[in-house]
STAS domain-containing protein (Clitoria ternatea), 1304 residues
Amino acid sequence: MGNRDYACPPSDVQRVAIPPPQPFIKSLKYSLKETFFPDDPLKKFKNQPASKRLVLGLQYFFPIFEWAPQYTLQFLKSDIIAGITIASLAIPQGISYAKLGNLPPILGLYSSFIPPLIYAMMGSSRDLAVGTVAVGSLLMASMLGREVNYLQNPNLYLHLAFTATFFAGLLQASLGLFRLGFIVDFLSHAAIVGFMGGAATVVCLQQLKSILGLQHFTHQADLVSVMRSVFTQTHQWRWESAVLGCCFIFFLLVTRYFSKRQPKFFWVSAMAPLVSVILGSLLVYLTHAEKHGVQVIGELKKGLNPPSVMDLVFVAPYVGTAIKTGLITGIIALAEGIAVGRSFAMFKNYHIDGNKEMIAIGTMNIFGSFTSCYLTTGPFSRSAVNYNAGCKTAVSNIVMSIAVMLTLLFLTPLFHYTPLVVLSAIIVSAMLGLIDYQGAIHLWKIDKFDFLVCISAYVGVVFGSVEIGLVIAVAVSLLRLLLFVARPRTYLLGNIPNSSAYRNVEQYPNANHIPGILILEIDAPIYFANASYLRERITRWIDEEEDRIKDTGKTSLQYVIMDMTAVANIDTSGISMLEEFKKTVDRRGLQLVLVNPGSEVMKKLNKSKFLDELGHKWIYLTVEEAVGECNFMLQTYKPNQMKDESQGWNNV
Amino acid sequence: MGNRDYACPPSDVQRVAIPPPQPFIKSLKYSLKETFFPDDPLKKFKNQPASKRLVLGLQYFFPIFEWAPQYTLQFLKSDIIAGITIASLAIPQGISYAKLGNLPPILGLYSSFIPPLIYAMMGSSRDLAVGTVAVGSLLMASMLGREVNYLQNPNLYLHLAFTATFFAGLLQASLGLFRLGFIVDFLSHAAIVGFMGGAATVVCLQQLKSILGLQHFTHQADLVSVMRSVFTQTHQWRWESAVLGCCFIFFLLVTRYFSKRQPKFFWVSAMAPLVSVILGSLLVYLTHAEKHGVQVIGELKKGLNPPSVMDLVFVAPYVGTAIKTGLITGIIALAEGIAVGRSFAMFKNYHIDGNKEMIAIGTMNIFGSFTSCYLTTGPFSRSAVNYNAGCKTAVSNIVMSIAVMLTLLFLTPLFHYTPLVVLSAIIVSAMLGLIDYQGAIHLWKIDKFDFLVCISAYVGVVFGSVEIGLVIAVAVSLLRLLLFVARPRTYLLGNIPNSSAYRNVEQYPNANHIPGILILEIDAPIYFANASYLRERITRWIDEEEDRIKDTGKTSLQYVIMDMTAVANIDTSGISMLEEFKKTVDRRGLQLVLVNPGSEVMKKLNKSKFLDELGHKWIYLTVEEAVGECNFMLQTYKPNQMKDESQGWNNV
């Protein structure tokens, strides 16, 4: 082990290796594999007969074939309980969210019937409960509403919603098929917290319409427009509606609080929306409140989903809106579905393949758009109920689907008298749970930049629109990545006492400075975006060091050691920068020394002849060795003997 | 120094420090300073009296006050020679480029009069020769031409060109003032090589019009349109024009080749364009070729620049085009000017402040737009001539400016008979020098991705348009940065024999594997964009290691050591990933060990309580120490004694 002294002869040093050249095709193949197949999904297909491969392929796309053979009666019991629980949540929420999307309420039920069945076959999560989501519904309403008025042209609006769902599904499935799932990763957790909070706020604001019993309301979703709309018509407020709404919100919040405290009674909060609907309907039916300003759902058509393949709109002015809406809602829905699936998979310690999930969610939306459903995904609240209710497999989705089917066939007339204000109360109570202010505080404490991402997404959604918020969130997140590359940190290293390690002197104030030697660490790849900055910054380090030496009158600076451990890669701009920097350093009479460049960097430095310029002897494996050699030179330095040494520090 | 043996007791280990908490404002200030003031421009203002500060400030914005006092007669002699040389190049080039931009030829002379004077006062480069550029002229023609036809509405077109120049200057100066110069860095060298090559190709193609003597020509700039335009009117080709053009191109290329070989005779190629113009004009004058299909410049107005402040267009439909054109041409011109200034500064070993240069170039364009000039910057070819001619300071620009002034006052009638085909020949010969195919080959050899950036910029410009090429180049460059963060490399480390260093086993095939311990290195910050990928990739490393152990039957895996040296930063998504990963590792009966997290990472791990979860004892300063301790545990491992150890590897 390396216990050489400072002033050792420059002999038995381990050299930094230049990796052997690889054929271009091979390294391209490797990069493509790491980019698109990091999880190596084809591993189990290797060395298998064709029939086995077919079975494995079928199991890949339809995980139901994987788990169905092991399914037990015990599982069925748990899944039935979970399925009925989520159905009782899905029915009122489905109707509410469809109203939020300005769609016929029955669509909420349709969407809880077909998509869960498809997901049960194709999805790999055991806990995801499929259904419509508030944010997606709101986005549909606001994006489609800009093109078509849902009151004047309800049919076209409906068909556009199906078309948007179709494109959302197409996008989701293609992302999965082409292994581009990592695009979803660019929506950071912080962005999603802010975005969801903003969307929830906006959705709650929209509910003021039904809660205050207003007839006219703004079509804008931002805070300013809604507040103006609410406070310009104070004389229109209906106190009956408001009282009813507040009571139900209170009831729902209390049950949620109770279930949170007592996880055993998860069903209390899960059943509360259905109970509210029943109570509200009864109340209206008995008091004839619908004639006193309390709006009700009205007639709901009995029967299962009608087909809607022929309703998809592919004609010029509308298809553009549908595609745009589909892309944005599709990405948002996907991000939520994948995140929810992953978190529950983590709790139960099984693996979720993101790309496979995307194919499942995408297929379910494509088929949904053919059967009168609109955008579905795996909402967090419903999946959490499913998980708490003890679901074992995706069979709970099938049970929910059957329960919804029975409702569609027989129970729709019961919703005739359901007051809209109850639906609003259900939405508000669900949305309040999405405003994760504690999450935002946590972000602030740990990472200020993440907080900035979160808060700008929130402000963008609340004061601008959902799309603006989304764009801001992604832009700020990307800015962070770009800033990281454009402005990498550089550190001054010192020797940790009683150790061969050299570390950042800011973090380790006891680290020792080595006279005559400046040791720097660069913390990022050297790319075009930071090459100029790094040149300036490193030059400043040298200037500051020389100023310091001038003040203290110690050994003059002779060596600049750059620890390249963290420099993962370099491009041609980076190499030009190093070449220029070497010239500058030479001119100042200093010797540049590199430590531990990685394989990529060594390969490129070698190809670009920079290694020859610098001299391979000035590249060391560890800072310790480099310092050892430099010290040896410094101590045995005699001008006449050293003529063969680099011109750099000879002409000091 | 650390020469502990493998099986040492876990006692005298140097701990990884958690940096003391800093007030938010202080770290924000530090980040802002590093982002916007990495070169510390205010350093010299510190501790100075107010009067001195004023002088320094004046010198900052007008470097002429800095160097003028030291100006000598010797310098003047050199500068006069250089100035006359570049003037003889500037006059024909200026006229040619103005024609290229569909502007009155006289504008080319105007633009070589006022802007160089301003730059001489404000610029910090000693070698930059100011003037118009071909690419900028072409861009103006194509972008403004889309809004206004220069033949039908020449006045409006001209005024829009001034307005675009004004906005270009405004953008350039603001980038400099607000210290946003690093935006230009995002145009990588590779992108510029491809972009310039593509633009040069497109400009050459445009010259086919005058060289073939065609009357009608496409307004598109892409290869396909131009080729179609040329080959659909073969019957219109004029051989007189073509012969003349080819002769002059040949003459110009031969002189360039000669001057390149014999740098002493730099003036041969510098004078060649002027000689061509004189020869061509004489030829036309004597043979009356203008009556036989050879187009000539015609009347040029005598006199200096008329003011054009009142011509700037700020009305609705046009100002948008002007702003867009200004932004794009401004950025391109800036990138060229800064790059040229920097490279010559490097040759002569003086420093150029990018932000200061931007203010200078921006101011010169703003004032240019007030005095009938259009977009100017520091073109490479002219600056190279200036440098070769031995210029000492920016006075050579003043000399050029005076020469152009004299031309404007007395010599413009001489250009009446100058054939357009000579101007085309001048443009073609200048453009051929911009197609840097050797540069592209160099990129291919060293960095395939840079080559991709370059070639896609080229293809985008040649087959699409200049803007498309620019957007593609920036997008592909950014994609590289994002891919770097999204798909960081992870390496397996091994012990280098006879050393305490642990390095990538791919680069050092002789590095030794330590039984029972998996050592990984992560080569990028852990951010939202790569957290999922890293979790999957590291899990795959563990799976592969366990498979390997199963096959060979060696010591089972007990420790996973992650070297965090290169992990410069982490965000909340990254921390969640680590938390999840730790749970997974625990569940598999492994112990997670971190090595050398940097100060940022330690701070955040501490705040997020991850340190408490992991146990501070599982974080080491060096891989050597971590391996030493793990080995100690492995060797002295007895289940009963170790009850107080982490649950992780207890329940193996």
Summary: Confidence is low (pLDDT under 50) at residues 1-11, 638-652 of chain B. Chain B touches chain A through 94 residues (CB under 8 Å). Chain B has 27 helices and six strands. The longest helix of chain B spans residues 316-348.
